[in-house]
Amino acid sequence: MKQKTVLLLLNLGTPDSPSRWQVGRYLGQFLNDPRVIDIPWLARKILVNCIIVPFRAGNSSKLYNAIWDKETGSPLLMNTLALQKKLQAAVGDDITVEMAMRYKNPSMDVVLERIHQQGYHKIIVFPLFPQYASSSTGSALQRFMEIVSQWWVIPEIKMVSQYFDNADFINCIVNRAKQYDLKQYDHIVFSYHGLPERQVDKVYNDGVLCKHHHCEDVLTESNYYCYKAACYQTTKALVEKLGIAQDKYTLSFQSRLNNKWLTPFSDKVIEELAVKGAKNILVFSPAFTADCLETLYEIGIEYQEIFHKHGGQKIQLVESLNSGDDWVETIKKIVLS
Prior knowledge:
The chain is α/β, with parallel strands linked by helices. Helix content is 45%, strand content 15%.
């Protein structure tokens, strides 16, 4: 009997449209996740539903409108669907490739119900987040397990939790860099999505804070699932492969909500580089495998405005892996190993 296998790609999510109403619904679902805002239930409900969503939905709607394609819609959804299609062609008929979002659509509930009805013998779960974080990979895998745990028959399951140290993944980013002459840029920034410091502290069971685990310098058994450590190791691998001098690059974190998040902050780094005289900067976003609001708008538009305001000229965003052939082959190799 031939075994039926399905590969499930998981991404974060996107509003169904850039309207204020749909953006508000997306933010409400996303920010009410206790792995995203890890504070007591009542405090989170008040903060998200009474403060953040009412005040941020309108502004976020404007940002989504700025990157929304009138024909294809959300860039994140478009890029992930394209990846799914190319992966399906790459793996052939032996494996079915499905895709779901942690928040909004296509929802994990609907996609997993379809998988359930098809009676697959094996599910391979591949979150599209290279570096593990509780608020992204952890949340997606938890929701997957919550749904599947209700099935009477639970098939064989393989879950990929992170792959920042995978050589083929690193080479995919290096391939994107080859489109640019690195010597033409005054500085290179590796900008990762930020996290509250308390969330990386929770990785450790020894009671020692993340900042005392030397995550910037070395990868160990204890910090292997620390997001900060994974970001630094990703950058080190890229810097080595690309031959970038130590004084020519900076690692930073973007999208913060307050000053208790991982530092240095990307917007401040961009501003400081401009003030010091940098005119052209190349920015990588190695935590994002698909271009989205955080890359296309935050880096491509918002940071460009900050850079220009303080004397800089051009920020060049390196495109994400999206549905590149090398990325398709890398995923195929990882999931089939």
